[in-house]
Amino acid sequence: MQTGIEFALRRDAQVIVTFDADGQHAASDVAALVDALEKHAADISIGSRFLTDSSAVPFGRRMLLRLAVIFMRITARVPLTDVHNGLRAIRRQAAAKISITLDGMAHASEIIDEIQRNSLRVVEVPVHVRYTEYSLHKGQSGAAAFRIAFEYLFKRWFL
Questions:
Q1: I want to staple 127 with a disulfide (CB 3.0 to 4.6 A). Which of 29, 44, 104, 152 is the partner?
Q2: Torsion angle of the four alpha carbons 41, 89, 52, 117, in this order, in degrees rounded to the nearest 10
Q3: Are 85 and 61 contacting, i.e. CB atoms less than 8 angstroms apart?
Q4: Using one digit for the tens of pLDDT, what is the confidence trace for 104-159?
């Protein structure tokens, strides 16, 4: 993720859009994320599957994501409804301040820390997330969520 952001900055991108590679995100949501930056004078906009009808989110995944929201509100103190949504739009100035060092999905938690650390203005935007057999297989399991939390806390406390 950091490599991609640095590449986009070198190419003089004014807005950088990130998304996970699990096939869950709809390209049609990108315009709303970019528009929200201007409309809300935000530095970063983050998609949220919980600002729309979230009934399509499988129950186990919904509970895991709710726990992640509580965890991140306690650790990073950023009030978001969907802390592991991979669809984001980031203004150039904000992207230049963000430093992602964690691998894998732990970067999503690290970005929330970077929002807090750099006092970035954030807005959430309703997005549609598609759950298919493929995307559910590629998504995070409960065990992976604990590994992500461990990596995140280890970096926060010891590095």
A1: 29
A2: -70
A3: no
A4: 777 888 899 999 999 999 999 999 887 766 555 555 556 666 676 677 677 666 66
SS3 148: helix
Strands of the chain (E only): list them.
Answer: 15-18, 44-48, 88-91, 122-126
Structure tokens at 96: 């230049």
Q: Which amino acid is at 28?
A: S
HSE-up of residue 154 (Cα within 13 Å, Cβ side) = 10
**What is the distance between the alpha carbons of residues 155 and 159, in angstroms, rounded to a whole number?**
5
Residue ranges of domains in the chain: 2-158
Neighbours of 56 (CB within 10 A): 12
Return the structure tokens found at 157. 């406390």
Q: How far apart are CA 9 and CA 5, in angstroms?
A: 6
> 0.85 exceeded by the pTM?
no
